[in-house]
Design a protein that fits this description.
repeat; 5 helices; metal-binding; zinc; Prenyltrans; 115 residues; mainly alpha; Geranylgeranyl transferase type II subunit beta
Length: 115
């Protein structure tokens, strides 16, 4: 699984690398099918939410904070990653909104909700 936390490279990139990076950025900008499915009339801007969560990462020590430049904590890490999963970020596995576990685990354990 590709990490959602990446450090910028110290090495110089070639034009080909730059083109590849631009293509990846464009892919990130396009809503995923999950994001389109969750679109309930425009109340949530999923791409802005994704950008905000990722801007709250602490590249040096890891984790996610409640706001950029704040101290990360486990609570915001959990809900930040859960938020990315629920809005369909392709780098994060889908989670069960009921159990807050990866959906594949819920399926494998055959957990059933009584809702």
């Amino acid at each position: 699984m590709e990490s959602i936390w990446t450090l910028e490279s110290d090495t110089e990139s070639t034009q080909e690398d730059d083109k590849e990076k631009d293509d990846k950025e464009k892919e990130k900008e396009e809503p995923t099918p999950e994001q389109q499915q969750l679109d309930d009339g425009g109340y949530i801007d999923y791409l802005s939410l994704q950008r905000f969560i990722l801007s709250c990462q602490d590249i040096e020590s890891g984790g996610i904070a409640d706001r950029p430049e704040d101290m990360p904590d486990l609570y915001h890490l959990f809900f930040g990653v859960a938020g990315l999963a629920l809005i369909g970020d392709p780098r994060v596995k889908r989670i069960s909104p009921i159990y807050a576990l990866p959906q594949e685990i819920v399926d494998r354990l055959m957990l059933v909700s009584e809702l």
